[in-house]
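Quick one, C-alpha cells below. Sequence please?
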C-alpha cells in the first residue's frame, strides 16, 4: 500500500483490502461464520502473491478488523460479527462499509 498516506488512512486502507480481498471471500468460499488461522494464512498468501503486497499489510488489516469488532478471535478461530451472518447465508457482497455499519449497530 502507499507510504504517503497518514497512519489512519493507511489503517483504513489495510482493513478495507483485507476485508474485501481475503476475509469476506474466504467466508463465502468455506461457507462458514468462522475460519482458522491456517485457512486465513493460505488465503492471505494467495492474495498477497496475486497483488504483490507484503504480509505485513494483511497482518495489520486483520488486527484492525478485530479492533473494530467486525471479527472476533477465540484461540485459533476467527469469526464474523453475528449481524454479518445473513449476508454470508445469501452469498451477498458485503463490502467494508456494510460490515462496519452492521458491527456498530446494536
Amino acid at each position: 500500500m502507499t507510504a504517503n498516506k497518514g497512519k489512519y488512512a493507511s489503517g483504513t486502507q489495510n482493513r478495507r483490502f483485507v476485508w474485501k480481498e481475503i476475509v469476506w471471500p474466504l467466508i463465502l468460499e468455506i461457507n462458514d461464520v468462522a475460519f482458522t488461522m491456517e485457512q486465513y494464512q493460505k488465503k492471505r498468501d494467495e492474495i498477497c502473491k496475486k497483488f504483490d503486497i507484503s504480509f505485513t499489510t494483511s497482518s495489520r488489516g486483520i488486527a484492525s478488523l478485530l479492533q473494530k469488532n467486525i471479527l472476533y478471535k477465540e484461540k485459533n478461530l476467527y469469526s464474523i460479527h453475528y449481524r454479518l451472518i445473513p449476508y454470508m447465508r445469501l452469498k451477498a457482497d458485503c463490502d467494508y462499509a456494510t460490515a462496519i455499519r452492521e458491527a456498530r449497530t446494536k
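Helices lie at 7-30, 37-51, 55-67, 85-89, 96-104. The chain is about 60% helix and 10% strand.
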